Amino acid sequence: MTSSLSNAGNRLELLLFYLSGKRRFAINVLKIKEVIPCPLLHQLPSADPNILGIAEMRGKTLPIIDLAKAISSSSKRSLSEEQIKQGSVITTEVNRSHQGLWISGVDKIVLCDWKDILPPAKGSGIGSYTTGVTLINNELVQLIDIEKVLGEVLGLTSSHTEELNVDQSKLEAVFGKLVMIVDDSSMAMKQTISALDRLGLKHISANDGKVALDILTDYQNGSPHTIEPISMIISDIEMPEMNGYTFVKKARQLSKFKDIHVLMHTSLNGSINMHEAIACGANDVLTKFVLDELVEKIIENLIASPSK
């Protein structure tokens, strides 16, 4: 799927779609390859119950996920063959993985400001698969946490039992340092915290750029609880209220953090993210989620980061 509208900086494009009924949901256009009528599906007897089947598309075999069923733990629906044919498939490229998301229908693409994307209310059910909410034509629209869906349905998480192959002298050089994590995806946050814990690093976290900037401002102003210095920032790009690009730009304006190393850790693939990230002041960009690569980048950036 292509679009002539800019999706960087302070604005983003959202694809609005339906899962069932008239309620609309959204996904960032940058995560979408194309939207097509549902192709012929081949059944997989031992597949996750949320997978409708697999499809051959452009030389690749993609699992097709029933998105409505995947985000509703209480959903026991079974779609008929005719219902499946009448639906559409969003093909996505997220966390280095290609897959299709079955939806009942497509609405339109809208352009939004990041500041208008607000954090979701905490809760269970569909709300736990939401990274943000926004008002469109006076209707509350939820942004789906695709990372969490794929992590649970396809198992796209890094194994916590993997042995880390890290030079001992490098481990000793970074041990005990404090790292800030900024990410609105609960799945990605848990994965990153796990990596830091295994390296013996301390961490503080925020689920969007606005909250993170408030924390950094407290450090800048010398608040009593900010004695221990932050040595590195790992930030997502897509976040409600304030995205990663804006957060890094504003963080660089604080004298205490003008030289801190920032790694942008994103589920979005593509060179556009590297260019935008470097332009806003980040030191490095990494596509989620490969444990060894994340560990390597953390150590590399901590060693290179100016001593505090």
Give the count of structural domains: 2
CATH topology of the largest domain: OB fold (Dihydrolipoamide Acetyltransferase, E2P)
Mean pLDDT over the residues: 84
Number of helices: 9
User: Could you tell me the strand content as a percent range?
Assistant: 25-35%
CATH architecture of the largest domain: Beta Barrel
Low-confidence stretches: 1-8
Structural class by SSE content: alpha/beta
CATH homologous group name of the largest domain: CheA-289, Domain 4
**Arrangement of strands in the largest sheet:** 8-1-2-10-9
- Give the N-to-C terminal Cα separation: 45 Å
Write the layout of secondary structure elements.
Elements: E1 11-18, E2 24-28, E3 32-37, E4 51-57, E5 60-66, H1 67-70, H2 81-86, E6 88-94, E7 97-103, E8 105-113, E9 130-136, E10 139-144, H3 146-153, H4 168-174, E11 178-182, H5 186-198, E12 202-206, H6 209-220, E13 230-235, H7 244-252, E14 261-266, H8 271-280, E15 284-287, H9 291-304
Parallel strand pairs: 2-10, 5-7, 11-12, 11-13, 13-14, 14-15
Antiparallel strand pairs: 1-2, 1-8, 3-6, 4-5, 6-7, 9-10
